[in-house]
Amino acid sequence: MASRRAGTAAPSPVRSENAPPLEGSPVERLRPRTAPQILDAGFEVMRFRAKTIAILLVVLHGPFYVASVVLLRQAGDVSWPTLLLSRLWNSSSLDALPRSSQIWIAGSTLSGLFGEMLFAVALAALMRGWLEGRDPSAGDVIRRTLRRLPGILLVWIVALVIKAIGAALCLVGLLLVVPQLSILAPVVAFEGSGSFRMLSALGRSRQLANRSASRALFLTLMAPALSALVSWGISAGDQLGITRFEQLSTIMGIAASLLLVVARGATMTLLYLDIRVRTEGLDLAIRAPEALGPLR
């Protein structure tokens, strides 16, 4: 715990009656974790409340995912949004497309990204409930998230512009900017309030991520790496002539897309909590009243 840093700490999650974190939840025992341990804990989050998370995914991310697929079909592309990575990597194939197709593909990508942001905020809000000793229902989380939709949209647009500027600086710019904004969704869920006040979440995300830059970079790079692995696996199956590959690729494309969205959201929320445990003593702030006991 000697690594905790001094500084202005953000307000701790609001807790009623100093209730301990939800028993058995992945946040019950807050402790510093390595990057691989955070990844493993991310899958634990998926298993802990699979039904609730599935409802959040379908209701909040589902419409944007469907829209991204429809827009991709308008571009004449029969692949799935998750598999666009291989085409985006090969920029020459995109440059050869008509301008209208490029616009449809851009719209598809943006739709999927916003749907992921909305779901990530909801998932972080669910995990915040566990930290407060509550077990929120999917309906409660969805209502709270939708009430904050204007602020989430505003923050997402500004973050998108910042990332675009980073992209203009080539790969180095993206490697600097994207990890700094990787925990934006949990910052909004835990600390953001009010449409314009949420903009402070951008600076807060940058501040926290810089305290653990190497792990933020590693976990950020894992997302495209896993997407590339899925894309490669499906392409390899196509080349090997697997029976009924078209149906198989459809199922794998959908499943891979949704699982990766959940894994990214859970992992980045755990990274946010880990950084606050290491540098702001979040675990001590939560446990202290319980550890000291009641005054007599």
Topology:
Blueprint lengths: L34 H14 L1 H25 L9 H6 L1 H5 L3 H33 L6 H10 L1 H20 L1 H11 L3 H8 L8 H11 L2 H27 L5 H36 L1 H11 L4
Helix pairs in contact: 1-12, 2-5, 2-6, 5-6, 5-7, 5-9, 5-12, 7-8, 8-11, 9-10, 11-12
- Determine the strand fraction and express it as a percent band: under 5%
Mean pLDDT: 80
How many domain units?
Answer: 1
Give helix % range.
over 70%
Q: Tell me, briefly, the overall form.
A: globular
User: Could you give the count of β-strands?
Assistant: 0
Q: Roughly how many Å is the radius of gyration?
A: 20 Å
The profile of the biggest β sheet is: none
- Class from secondary-structure proportions: mainly alpha
- Count, helices: 13
Please provide the ordered H/E string of secondary-structure elements. Answer: HHHHHHHHHHHHH
- Unreliable residue runs: 1-9
Task: Provide structural commentary.
The protein is mostly helical and 296 residues long. The protein has one domain. Helices cover 73% and strands 0% of the residues. It is built from 13 helices and no strands. Helix 5 crosses helix 7, helix 5 crosses helix 9 (184-191) and helix 5 crosses helix 12 (245-280). The two termini are 30 Å apart. Residues 1-9 have low confidence and may be disordered.
Question: What features would you highlight for this structure?
Answer:
single chain, 296 residues, mainly alpha, 13 helices
